[in-house]
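A student in our group prepared the protein record below, which I am reviewing. This is what I was given:
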Amino acid sequence: MALKATIYKADLQVSDLDRHYYQNHALTVARHPSETEERLMVRLAAFAHNAHPALTFAKGLSDVDEPDLWQRDLTGAIDLWIDVGLPDERRIIKASGRARKVIVYAYGGNAATLWWNQTTAKLARLNNVTVMNIPMEASKALALLARRNMQLQASIQDNEIMVTCEDGLVSVSLEKLKDSQFA
C-alpha cells in the first residue's frame, strides 16, 4: 500500500516591506511521503518570499513536469516557477524555457555549495533564473517550527525573512547566488 501525503494547514501572514505586499494566506500544503519537514518549511518560506494571490503549490515531487510552486497568468502561461532543493540543471533549463521567471531555493549546507559549484556554469546564460541559498542553520530551525496546524507571520526585508509563530522566531538570510535579468 502506497503512503499518502500528510496535510499541513498554515495561516500565513506576509508583510513584505520590499514589495509593499501585506496579505494573509490560508494554505493547505501536502507533504509528500519522501519529503522532510525541513523541505516543507523551505517551501513555505519560498511562498512567503514570493507571496501573490495567484501563487500556488504545485505537485513538485509527485510530478516532474511541475515545480514546487508556480504562478500562472490568466491565459495559463507560467509567470513564476519555483523549485526547492538541488534540482538537476536540465530541469532548470527546461523550466527557464517554460516560465517567464524561475527561482531556485537551494538549501542543505555543503551539499548546496557543491551543487552550486557544479551547476553555476550551466546556468550562467539563463537570464530568467535566480538562485537563492538558505543557510543550513536557518532551514533546520524552520523545520523545528513545523506543525500540522500553524499560525505563521513572515516579515520580509532585504532578502531576510523573519518567521515567527507561537513556538519561536527564525531569521532566514537569503544569499543570492545568481540574479535574474528580469524583475
